[in-house]
Amino acid sequence: MSCSAAPTSVIADVLLLAAFVAWERRVRMLMLPLGLFGSAQFTAANVVTFAVYGALNGALFLLPIELQQVSGYTALQAGISLLPVTVIMLALSARSGALAARIGPRLQMSVGPVVTGFGLALFTRISYSGNYPTEVVPAVVVFGLGLAITVAPLTSTVLAAVPASRAGMASAVNNDVGRAASLIAVAIFPAAAGLSGTAYLHPARFSAGFGGASLISAGLCLAGGALAAVTIRNPRPQADPAPQQLLHCALDAPASPAVPHR
Q1: What CA–CA distance (Å, rounded) separates 98 from 253?
Q2: How many CB atoms within 10 Å of residue 57?
Q3: Containing structural domain, residue 2
Q4: Which residue, 221, 200, 84, is CA-closest to 150?
Q5: What is the torsional sign of CA 113, 116, 120, 122?
């Protein structure tokens, strides 16, 4: 896409979004109930999603190019170098979700993006040597820890902010917000960091731009964490229900309340 076409596309997208909102306000059978955004918690969680997912995907779009064109990795090596993120997410995401269920999501949604941002900032240490243990692993591990802290509480907050009957819609909106943030970041971050279409042919130039894009991503994550600290609220603790006498056979059926004799 040429530079002259980009502003036209952005303006067209904004106009189409405005038209969609206006249409949804008029029709009876809604594709997207705008009332979902009446929940401050739902709206805040989606704004945090936009910041965090835009930051991480904007940087991860450029990272494989940095590893290949600057550090001399093959395409396979560049891909494998990010496997620790997957391992960390698999190992810790469930525990992070369980912790958020106990103490509320605010702490993790505030701290997690900050840790993620620190990991993104560490990407600036990747140099021509591309030494994996000293330059890549620290950044990838910290980045993965930040995501493990953030993602499960973020998702559960979005779903808990709406009635159960609209959980599917809420999940779809949150996924769309994350994807839109990724697309916008991929389109904007390279230009903001001074990277043109041919920058990858010049390792020194690309490396400098990649460092700038990593810092932009880190700053966006920090902003997401600060926003979560201000806007996300932990649910109020609920009183435990009165204990019920349970009569059941574990081999036949799950526990059920005892039925009093008449």
Answers
A1: 26
A2: 19
A3: 1-31
A4: 221
A5: positive
* Shared domain check, 16 and 76: no
pTM equals 0.81
d(Cα 251, Cα 50) in Å, to the nearest integer?
A: 47
Half-sphere exposure (Cβ direction) of 7: Cα atoms closer than 13 Å: 2
Query: Token digits for 136?
Result: 């890549």
Helical ranges in the chain per DSSP H:
5-26, 40-65, 75-80, 83-103, 106-122, 137-160, 167-192, 203-231
Residue of 161, 141, 147 lying closest to 116 (CA atoms) = 147
What are residue 159's phi and psi, to 5 degrees? -70, -35
- Say whether both 13 and 126 belong to one domain: no
Number of domains in the chain: 2
Residue entry with tokens 């460092």: 211
Which pLDDT tens digit goes with each residue over 118-143?
A: 999 999 999 999 899 999 999 999 99
Q: Are 124 and 142 in contact (CB under 8 A)?
A: no
